[in-house]
Design a protein that fits this description.
heterodimer; A: 110 residues; five-stranded antiparallel sheet; B: 110 residues; seven-stranded mixed sheet
Chain lengths: 110, 110
């Protein structure tokens, strides 16, 4: 079935450094959603990308959807300790089912 | 008040016991979902329901059953719990463009 691969699994950065997590699929993604889960918390929706090549920004976060709709990325500029958590991508079809990637856990050293 | 609530928040049970996890939502959405989260595996869909009379299996439904008692309530049962069902369980509601997650139930099966 549909699989969504996310890398890296873990990333440790110094505060102020940039961070990127990548989401890849061997088949075309319908839409891509990104979620953030703080330690001990639950996933919280960040954004949905729908169009091929789409780029969206939320303050220091930049989300991209690949031209072929087979990959996506989340880039955080100048990380802060508040960015700590696990970031998930998910393939979102019109059926409402989400197929999640394995997640990237970000640690930020102050 | 939280839009999606789950009870219990933590539960320790023994192999072979029947256990029910409950979920309620005040978002007014028709669609509800149950996921389990295991380290390194992301979130995997167990069951989902698009309305009270519609129940569908997800990726990993074996060993689980669900009941949709009302639009706002969706419960997950483990008929005979086994240790590899030890995990963090999330209920969610929403549409194809965004899901709202409950706080999670941490289940340990000894």
């Amino acid at each position: 079935g549909q699989q969504v691969m996310q890398i890296p699994q873990y990333q440790h950065v110094q505060e102020g450094e940039d961070f990127t997590t990548y989401c890849n699929s061997s088949t075309t993604l319908s839409n891509i959603q990104w979620y953030k889960q703080r330690p001990g918390g639950h996933p919280v929706f960040l954004i949905q990308l729908v169009k091929s090549g789409e780029v969206k920004k939320q303050k220091r976060l930049t989300f991209q959807f690949g031209e072929a709709k087979k990959n996506s990325s989340l880039h955080i500029t100048a990380t802060q300790t508040t960015d700590v958590g696990t970031y998930f991508c998910a393939d979102s079809s019109n059926t409402g089912k989400l197929i999640f990637g394995q997640g990237t856990t970000l640690q930020v050293k102050p | 008040d939280a839009d999606v609530t789950q009870t219990p928040r933590n539960r320790i049970t023994k192999t072979g016991k029947r256990i029910m996890l409950e979920c309620s939502q005040t978002k007014g959405h028709d669609r509800m979902y149950w996921y389990r989260q295991d380290p390194g595996l992301g979130l995997r869909l167990i069951y989902y329901s698009f309305d009270v009379k519609d129940i569908n299996k997800g990726e990993i439904s074996d060993g689980y059953s669900v009941s949709r008692q009302a639009q706002a309530k969706f419960s997950l049962s483990l008929e005979s719990a086994i240790p590899n069902q030890t995990a963090l369980y999330f209920c969610a509601t929403g549409y194809y463009n965004e899901q709202f997650f409950g706080p999670g139930t941490r289940l340990t099966v000894l």
